[in-house]
């Protein structure tokens, strides 16, 4: 099952925070820990900045990738 299918299958059973926590488990990665803390604080601007930097470092366009990702959830 690909990640998108996994997320879709969990969406009706859990809220978004629970879905993310289940997917990452007890991850010791400091970047993931920082992202979780930003999410818990409601720091959406910090999360977006992190994502944009992450994609830029990989020579990818965040807006294009996010649009493609979101298209997986449209009916």
Task: Summarize it.
The chain has 75 residues and is an all-alpha fold. The protein is built from 5 helices and no strands.
Q: What would the keywords be for this entry?
A:
75 residues; mainly alpha; globular
How many strands, which pairing sense, and closed or not: the largest β-sheet? none
**How much helix, percentage-wise, in residues?**
over 70%
Poorly predicted runs:
none
The gross shape turns out to be globular
The gyration radius over C-alpha positions equals 13 Å
Structural class: mainly alpha
Number of strands: 0
Mean pLDDT: 79
Number of helical stretches of at least 4 residues: 5
Strand content: under 5%
The arrangement of helices and strands along the chain is HHHHH
Description:
It is a single chain. The protein contains five helices and no strands. The protein has 75 residues and is mostly helical. The protein has one domain. The protein is globular.
How would you summarize the topology of this molecule?
Layout: H1 3-11, H2 16-24, H3 30-41, H4 44-57, H5 62-71
